[in-house]
């Protein structure tokens, strides 16, 4: 199985920056894709950004402000968030899809979520 530990959320003023981190551990043979989603109160969970070998994908609302990156040796994904706006306020969730070791098949794992609040 895969375990995820997220960190980096908090309170920031509009225009500020935050970096989220998510470390994956467990019986991982290879990671297919790592991503960040968010869910604001009353809204559905939405994709913010994802990264796989040779490809990154962003929601239109964060293009040019957020950057996703990955450290393969540490099985860690980062989300650098700049020029934050109040509408970015949400719980941010890490998601990892991986091939498990020893023929364990595919896994799709969610982190526990980290709160990001953008407010003056």
Describe the structure in your own words.
This protein is mostly beta strands and 120 residues long. The chain is 0% helix and 62% strand. It has no helices and 11 strands. It has strands spanning 2-7, 10-12, 18-26, 28-39, 46-52, 55-58, 66-71, 76-81, 90-100, 106-110, 114-118. The chain starts with a strand and ends with a strand.
Question: What is the strand and helix layout of this fold?
Answer:
Blueprint: E1 2-7, E2 10-12, E3 18-26, E4 28-39, E5 46-52, E6 55-58, E7 66-71, E8 76-81, E9 90-100, E10 106-110, E11 114-118
Parallel strand pairs: 2-11
Antiparallel strand pairs: 1-3, 3-8, 4-5, 4-9, 5-6, 7-8, 9-10, 9-11
Notable features of this structure?
120 residues, mainly beta, 7-stranded mixed β-sheet, 4-stranded antiparallel β-sheet, 11 strands
Output mean pLDDT: 96
Kindly state the percentage of residues in helix.
Answer: under 10%
Helical stretch tally = 0
What is the H/E string?
EEEEEEEEEEE
Q: Radius of gyration in whole Å, from Cα?
A: 14 Å
CA(first)-CA(last) distance: 40 Å
Beta-strand percentage range: over 45%
What is the general shape?
A: elongated
Largest sheet: 7 strands, mixed
The helix-and-strand class reads: mainly beta
User: Low-confidence runs (pLDDT<50, min 5 residues)?
Assistant: none
| β-strand number | 11
């Amino acid at each position: 199985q895969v375990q995820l530990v997220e960190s980096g959320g908090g309170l920031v003023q509009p225009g500020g920056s935050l970096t989220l981190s998510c470390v994956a551990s467990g019986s991982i043979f290879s990671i297919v894709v790592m991503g960040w989603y968010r869910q604001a109160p009353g809204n559905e969970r939405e994709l913010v950004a994802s990264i796989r070998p040779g490809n990154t994908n962003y929601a239109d609302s964060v293009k040019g402000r957020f950057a996703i990156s990955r450290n393969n040796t540490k099985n860690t994904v980062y989300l650098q968030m700049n020029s934050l706006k109040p509408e970015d306020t949400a719980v941010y969730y890490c998601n990892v899809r991986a091939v498990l070791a020893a023929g364990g098949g595919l896994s799709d794992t969610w982190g526990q979520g980290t709160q990001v609040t953008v407010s003056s």
